[in-house]
Amino acid sequence: MGERSEGVRHDDGVAVRQRVVNDLPDCVRALKAVHAADGYPMWWPADPAGWLSPVRCTSAWVAELGGAIVGHVCVVGGVEDPVVASSAGVSSDRLAAVSRLFVAPAARGRRLGASLLAASSLYASAQGLQLMLDVVDDGGPAAAVYERLGWRLVDRRFAGWTTPRGDRLPVRIYLAPRGDGSSPL
User: Fold this and answer.
1) Cα–Cα dist 54/145, whole Å
2) pTM exceeds 0.85
3) DSSP secondary-structure letter at 66?
4) What is the pLDDT of residues 160-181, one digit of tens each?
């Protein structure tokens, strides 16, 4: 289980593959760069490797550039969100969330985030799951990226977590496009 897995490699030295346990120290290094540049995650976790593997994490992928891990995403199953499940037309047990998605600043502009989302979407489709994600509604570029990739905005609400200052930020909730390329419902 600790060996590196095969994934999709491109001629430009970019690869996306399933994460293995031995990848976690390199994932934490990339996450530190993201935290320093963007403040994500908002709260630096006491156990960053554990944070990258949240409860109900069903699978995870890494993006590599020239053999170095520069991005990460995981899928979390068992999402209890009746509003989103209803919007998707699925039962709650078929709803899963994209989580811990990031690309290190030095590797941005190569569509690695889109590649990581594609890997998680292929997995979800094979498992019969509907993917959702949430993003802070701060006017940043993330929402435009998700919409360009076909994700559909289904809700806006305040986050269930707070910032270090105690604020609850507005978030946008998106559903992934269906595996056949069409938008959900």
Assistant:
1) 24
2) yes
3) T
4) 989 889 999 999 999 999 754 3
What CATH fold (topology level) applies to the domain 7-175?
Answer: Aminopeptidase (3.40.630)
Cα 45 to Cα 158: distance, rounded to the nearest angstrom: 22
**Buried-state track 135-159, b at ≥16 Cβ within 10 A, e below 16:** bbbeeeebbeebeebbbbebeeeee
> Based on the number of CB atoms within 10 Å of its own CB, is 111 exposed (0-12), middle (13-18) or buried (19 or more)?
middle
pLDDT at 63 over 90: yes
Strand 57-65 versus strand 68-76 pairing type? antiparallel
For the chain, the domains span 7-175
Residues 6+ apart with CB under 8 A from 74: 19, 52, 53, 54, 57, 58, 59, 60, 61, 98, 99, 100, 120
